[in-house]
Specification:
Distance between the termini of chain B: 44 Å
Strand order of the largest sheet of chain A: 2-1-3-4-8-7
Order of helices and strands of chain A: HHEHHEHEHEEEHEHEHHH
Helix content of chain B: 25-40%
CATH architecture of chain A: 3-Layer(aba) Sandwich
Oligomer: heterodimer
Radius of gyration of chain A: 19 Å
Strand content of chain B: 15-25%
Helix content of chain A: 40-55%
CATH superfamily of the largest domain in chain B: Thiamin diphosphate (ThDP)-binding fold, Pyr/PP domains
CATH topology of chain A: Rossmann fold
CATH superfamily of chain A: Thiamin diphosphate (ThDP)-binding fold, Pyr/PP domains
CATH class of chain A: Alpha Beta
CATH class of the largest domain in chain B: Alpha Beta
Radius of gyration of chain B: 20 Å
Bound molecules: thiamine diphosphate, magnesium ion
CATH architecture of the largest domain in chain B: 3-Layer(aba) Sandwich
Chain lengths: ~325, ~325
């Protein structure tokens, strides 16, 4: 059931390897802090944690440039951090503060950053795919170099919009990379209980686009696969579907009692913790020692503490501004 | 002034927009090779090519969503949905994305998207092609909703809509496409938030829009012969509603009939009626009346369809019941 790592590739250079580890660790610690802040009732509403899936977001994001447009789901904290959105405004967003990345209008599920072309967390399953297709169309029609990267879960594959979007993107040869983070569950419904064909990467061929699947617990394998997919798309060949096989270690959301899977299954997957796997490899390669690891941990801890401080210190949006961003001013 | 049909007016506006702004493109089912289900875009593929006149697969949700994405990416898409009934398949993108993105992103994003679709009954198209659901769209904060009742508005609204920074939905009544009228193609794009008085009168206000304007004007003519001077207000903008124009007319006539082809329950007519009662109660000499479609899925047979839709006589009768007999 756990896919084997397929990345026996060359050793990365030390600086980049440590960067990847740091990125995953930032997400892990950010999410742990978010859970803590939720239990302290600083964060409300839905909170979906990314713990266990860090290698997919971090690995995939290495394939994209600032020119590219990113679309994600409600489980998007990791993508936002990996895209370079600073942790403070993300935490502040979840606190509901005016200093949040969406001024407190979005919360955990709706992070946005226009300047970084982070086009948001979408909480209607499958709803982001058409948007990504349109962003890619805009790149193509304006002869710009960007591609659209669209993250979604295995659950979204059951939605009509997945099939429509793959078809349209392939038909119009649009620069979209569809990134399915298959964590084997759509809330409590296991993949085999919602898909007749459980090989998600096999769903691309009928629409005429290439695809592959990769071990989503292996950050280097994800990175390599995403870079390959991106190169294909950047060359003007049309879209690509990349399936990232992963697992979430936490419940679907903070409201989920996690009754639909066994403790043994979760423990089995935790043996393939993407951070632990990568750390072990770095040590084996001689790229990481205890001192460097401790330093990294301390730096990340400081960043997360600072994010919480930023969130705490931020002002609330005055309620008088309630209607300010419903519609723009009419043309002058 | 150029004489043309409602259909040609929309086409002329599309052509003008496509010529003057390279960011503008049209996409939808059968807008290109077929020429548009209502022949609105006939000839545009030949003039502008397949990059800008884009035939889409039957996937309303995704091409509407792609319109949102393209707007976010710097283009000015015009999305055509064949009829309002099919737009229901795109409701998710409309409500959850188009209408929310500006707000949900804390004002960072805006979606300059124009969506056009045909609405309404009267052509024996039965229960899945004849609805007037624009009132549902008018329920949604974050979008603008327009409905063109005249040839000049069919032209001007589209150009006005393209100047907006946020999504605009334009409803075209399917029976109006052959309607003839005059268009001033050199006029400034329409200021799209104002209602228009189509006939002045002091005894009763008939409030309507889109496909019902013709019937309402006929009713006003009959009422005039009976000595009742009806004012006919064409709403044009269903969201936002031009409440000041409604209230100004009611302040003058003290009576109002709302004529709306949608079903009565939970309708735009109900909203208008409520606003009048909330804001002009003291002006009223009679309760607000409504003439709407019968609460039935639209039947096919002509006599049944006619029975289901608002009728001129019903409008006349509703108005007469509000106005005390003269003499
Ligand atoms: C259209 C729609 N239906 C149902 C839901 C409720 N819901 C939220 S997340 C989810 C599961 C989605 O699973 P998946 O796509 O695999 O993403 P994951 O949560 O595993 O990251 C469901 C059913 C929703 N948000 N949107
Ligand atoms: Mg899942």
């Amino acid at each position: 059931m756990c896919p084997a790592s397929n990345s026996d590739g060359p050793m990365p250079d030390r600086e980049h390897a440590l960067f990847l580890l740091r990125e995953m660790l930032r997400i892990r610690r950010f999410e742990e802090k978010a859970a803590e802040m939720y239990s302290l009732q600083k964060i409300h509403g839905f909170l979906h944690l990314y713990i266990g899936e860090e290698a997919t977001g971090v690995g995939a994001m290495q394939a994209f440039t600032p020119d590219d447009a990113i679309v994600a789901t409600y489980r998007e904290h990791g993508h936002a951090l990996a895209r370079g959105l600073p942790a403070g405004p993300l935490m502040a967003e979840m606190f509901g503060k005016a200093t949040g990345c969406s001024r407190g209008h979005g919360g955990s599920m709706h992070f946005f950053d226009k300047a970084r072309r982070f086009y948001g967390g979408y909480a209607i399953v499958g709803g982001g795919l058409p948007i990504a297709v349109g962003l890619a169309l805009a790149e193509k029609l304006q002869k710009r170099p960007g591609v659209a990267a669209c993250f979604f879960g295995d659950g979204a594959v059951a939605e009509g919009e997945f099939h429509e979007a793959l078809n349209l993107a392939a038909l119009w040869k649009l620069p979209v990379i569809f990134l399915c983070e298959n964590n084997l569950y759509a809330m409590g419904t296991a993949l085999a209980r919602h898909q007749a064909q459980t090989d998600i990467s096999a769903k691309a061929a009928p629409y005429g686009l290439p695809s592959s699947a990769v071990d989503g617990m292996d950050v280097l394998a994800v990175k390599a696969a995403a870079q390959q997919a991106a190169a294909f798309v950047r060359a003007g060949n049309g879209p690509y579907l990349l399936e990232l096989r992963t697992y979430r270690f936490r419940a679907h959301s903070m409201a989920d009692p996690d009754l639909y899977r066994t403790k043994e299954e979760i423990e089995e997957w935790k043996k393939r913790d993407p951070l632990a796997l990568f750390e072990a490899r770095l040590r084996a390669w001689g790229l990481l020692d205890d001192a460097a690891r401790a330093r990294l941990e301390a730096e990340v801890a400081a960043e997360i503490e600072e994010a919480v401080r930023f969130a705490e210190a931020g002002p609330w949006e005055p309620a008088e501004n309630l209607l300010a961003d419903v519609q723009g001013p009419p043309p002058s | 002034m150029t004489k043309m049909t409602y259909r040609e007016a929309v086409r002329a506006a599309l052509r003008k927009a496509l010529r003057s702004d390279p960011r503008v493109f049209l996409m939808g089912e059968d807008v290109g090779r077929y020429g548009g289900a209502f022949a609105v875009s006939h000839g545009l593929l030949e003039e502008f090519g397949p990059e800008r006149i884009r035939d889409t697969p039957l996937s309303e949700s995704t091409f509407l969503g792609a319109g949102i994405g393209a707007a976010l990416g710097g283009l000015r898409p015009i999305v055509e949905i064949m009829t309002v009934n099919f737009s229901l398949l795109a409701m998710d993108q409309i409500l959850n994305n188009a209408a929310t993105l500006r707000h949900m992103s804390g004002g960072q994003l805006n979606v300059p998207l124009v969506v056009r679709m045909a609405t309404g009954g009267g052509r024996q198209m039965a229960a899945q092609h004849s609805n007037s659901l624009e009132g549902w769209y008018a329920h949604i904060p974050g979008i603008r909703v327009l409905a063109s009742a005249t040839v000049a508005d069919a032209y001007g609204m589209l150009l006005g809509a393209l100047r907006q920074p946020d999504p605009v939905f334009i409803f075209e009544h399917a029976t109006l496409y052959p309607l003839e009228g005059e268009v001033d193609e050199s006029a400034e794009p329409l200021e799209i938030t104002r209602a228009a008085v189509r006939r002045s009168g002091g005894d009763v206000t008939l409030i309507t829009y889109c496909g019902s304007l013709g019937k309402t004007l006929q009713a006003a003519e009959i009422l005039a012969q009976a000595g009742i001077a009806a004012e006919v207000l064409d709403l044009r903008s269903l969201r936002p509603l031009d409440t000041p124009a409604i209230l100004a007319s009611v302040a003058k006539t003290h009576r109002a009939v709302v004529v709306d082809e949608a079903w009565r329950t939970g309708s735009l007519a109900a909203e208008i009626s409520a606003r009048i009662m909330e804001q002009a109660f003291d002006d009223l000499d009679a309760p607000v009346a409504r003439v709407c479609s019968a609460e039935v899925p639209m039947p096919y047979a002509k006599h049944l369809e006619t029975a289901a839709l608002p009728k001129v006589e019903e409008i006349v009768r509703a108005a007469q019941e509000l106005v005390p007999r003269h003499g």
